[in-house]
Design a protein that fits this description.
The protein has 157 residues and is of the alpha+beta class. Helix content is 34%, strand content 27%. Strands 1, 2, 3, 4, 5, 6, 7 and 8 form an eight-stranded antiparallel beta sheet that branches.
């Protein structure tokens, strides 16, 4: 997978975090995750279809998720991601990022669409249908000043 497929995910995520969290996370070293595919405690996956098919998985530790949702809600404390409002916020974040990514691709005349997000706690490799269709998963770590990490895992066959 070349940079032209990775950069829209970096740009989309950073743009959204700047807007909804008032912070642009720094880009960590992009790397390849090997099988078995392991995620953090919280995942939101979104299928991509159109000019190409794939799946993007947003994954984070629970404390990172609480931090991000709190930032989205102007600093309101978030005790648990199991709360319906927190679940909704995490899914909406993934949806907004993915929509931005689709818009960036569209600007390159690559038309893709997204399916609704699927939130999971303690996901397993078998929860992600595209894992069997890809040889590698590109992981894009986004690091907040607080030390929290939000990963964008891209699976495009």
């Amino acid at each position: 997978m070349d940079a032209s497929f990775v950069n829209p995910f970096v740009q989309g995520a950073q743009r959204v975090f700047t807007t909804v969290c008032q912070e642009t996370p720094s880009l960590g070293k992009i790397f390849v995750k090997t099988k078995p595919y392991v995620t953090e405690e919280v995942t939101v996956s979104i299928d991509i279809f159109g000019a190409f098919e794939g799946e993007v998985v947003y994954t984070m530790k629970e404390d990172a998720g609480r931090f991000i949702v709190s930032q989205m809600m102007m600093g309101m404390p978030v005790e648990s991601l199991q709360d319906d409002m927190a679940k909704s916020a995490v899914c909406e974040l993934a949806n907004i990022i993915s929509g931005n990514v689709a818009t960036i691709f569209s600007g390159k005349e690559i038309v893709v669409d997204i399916k609704p997000p699927q939130l999971r706690f303690g996901a397993k490799e078998t929860d992600f249908p595209f894992i069997e269709r890809v040889s590698k998963v590109i992981c894009i770590p986004m690091m907040f000043q607080s030390g929290h990490i939000f990963e964008v895992d891209v699976m495009i066959p």
